[in-house]
Amino acid sequence: MVLYGYDKYLTVLGWDESKWENGWESPEDAPETEGLYWNDMTEEQQAAATELCYFEYLWDGYPITEW
Predict the structure, then answer these.
(1) Please, are residues 48 and 5 in contact by the beta-carbon 8 Å criterion?
(2) How far apart are CA 19 and CA 10, in angstroms?
(3) Out of 21, 33, 34, 61, which residue is the most buried by the measure of CB atoms under 10 Å away?
(4) Secondary structure of residue 13 in the 3-state scheme
């Protein structure tokens, strides 16, 4: 992730190396964006997610047949 510069986008989304490598044990430890819908994220978070090839329907978990 670091090699390609994706770490900066993941950081904006609340991820760090520990969460990436080890996950988390309780919901309180999850990245803040993990439970957010696209429209609940900040513009900065949406931009970071877009750089990681996410868009609203993919982030929100819509079935591909509804895209």
Answers:
(1) no
(2) 11
(3) 33
(4) coil
* Integer-rounded Cα radius of gyration of the chain: 12
Spell out the domain ranges in the chain: 7-66
pLDDT < 50: residue spans in the chain: none
Q: Give the model's pLDDT for residue 17.
A: 83
Q: DSSP characters for 30-64?
A: S-GGGG--GGGS-HHHHHHHHHTT--HHHHTT--G
pLDDT of residue 64: 93
DSSP letter for each residue of 21-37? HH--SSGGGS-GGGG--
